[in-house]
Amino acid sequence: MQKASKRPSWFNFLIPYYASQEIVVNIVPLYILYLGGNVIEVGYALALYNIIPIFTSIVSGRLADVTGMRRNMITASLIIALVAFFIMYFVKNILGVIVATTLFSFGFSFAIPIIGLLLTETLPKNMWGQGNSWSFMFMLIGYIVGMIPTILVSIKLPIFYGLYVIFAYLMLAFLFNYFYVKDPPVAFERRSEVRNFNLFLHRILKWPAMTLRAPRLSDFKILKGIKSSVSFQLPIIIAASSMFFLATNLFFTSYSPYLVYNKVPYWMVLTASTYILIVNSIGMLPKIRQKAQQADVAFIVDMLLIRVIGAISASIVASYVYGIDSFYITFLIFTMLGLAYTPIYVGLSSLLYYNLPSINQGATLGVYSSFVNLSLFLGSLFSGYISYYEGYSFTFFVAALFFMFSAIILEWFYKVHEREF
Q1: Is 1.20.1250.20 the CATH classification of the domain at 10-207?
Q2: Is residue 375 scored above 50 in pLDDT?
Q3: How far apart are CA 303 and CA 233, in angstroms?
C-alpha cells in the first residue's frame, strides 16, 4: 500500500490512454466522411463502438477477478487497440474503419474494469474519494492533450494524418503501463466497487454501464416488481437513464457530420468537440458535483430541461443557419448541453447507487447496463438514418424529445410519491 499522501504513479497511464480514446471517438466520423461515407455509416461505426463494452467488461472483469493481473491485461487491451490502428491505417475504406472502430472499442473497454480496481488496490479506503477526483482530472487532461495536437495536425493536413497522433499516444500508453502499472500484492474483486459510493462513481463515470456478470433472463424480473416502493424505483431509474443516453447519442452522432455538411473545416469541428469536453468538466466542480451526488430529482430534471433547450436550439439553428455561422453558434449550444451533462450523469448514477438492492446487485447492474448500452447503440444507429432521410434539424428535435421524456419520467415519479428517492 502506498502512502496516503502520495498519488499512485499508475495515474500517469491514464493520460495517453484517454488521449488515444478521445481522438478515436472524434476522428472516426470525420475520417468516414473524408473517405466519401455518409452519416448512416458514421452511425454504424459509433453504434458498434457503444455496444461492444457490455461484452468486453464481462470478459475482462471476470479475468481480473480470477487472475489478479493488472499490467498484463492493460497490455492486452493496448495490443488490441494497436491492431485496430493498423487496420484503420492500411485498409483505407469505410468497412475497414468500422471494423477498426469496433476493435478500438474492444481494446479500450477491456481496460476499464482494471482501472477501477487499481484505485481500490493502491489507495487506502479513506482516500478513495480523492482518488476519484484524481482519476477524473487525469481523464480530462488526457482528453485535452489528445485533442490539441489532433486539431493542429488537421489544420494543414488531411484528417488521415490524425491517425499518427493516435499511434503516438498508444506508444506512450504502452510505456507508461510498463513503468507505472504494477500488479497489487492483494487483488480486489469488482464487487468492492458497489460497496462504496466513491468507487461506484469512479467506475460508472468511465462508461455509463457496469456489469459484474452476464445478465440472465430471470434478472429482468425486477422490471415487473412495480408494486413495492423499493422495486418500483429501479425501473424508473433505468427508463430515465435509457432515455437520456439514447438522446445523447442521437444528438452527438450526427453533430459532427452536420458541421461538415455546412462546410466547416475538420479542425474547427474538432475544436468544438474539445470545447464541450471542457464545459462538461465544469459539472465536476465540488459544489455542482456534491449537489448531483445528493440524487436530488428536481435538480436532475432541471438539468435535463437545459439539455432540452440546447437540443431544440440546435434544431432551429440547423433549419435556418448555414455555413460557417453554424460553427460559431455551436459554442452557445454546447455550453447548454455541456453544463448539464455531468450533473445529470452523476445524478442518475447516484440514484442508481442509492437504490441498489442489498442482494442481487450483480443482476440489477446487469439489467441496467443492458438497457443503457442498448440505448447508446440505438441512439447512434437511429441518428444516422434519421439525419440521412429526414435531415439534421429533425434529428436534434427527436433528441430533445427523448431528453424531455427522461425529465417527465423522473418528474412524474417524484410528484406521485411526493418525495425524493
Answers
A1: yes
A2: yes
A3: 20
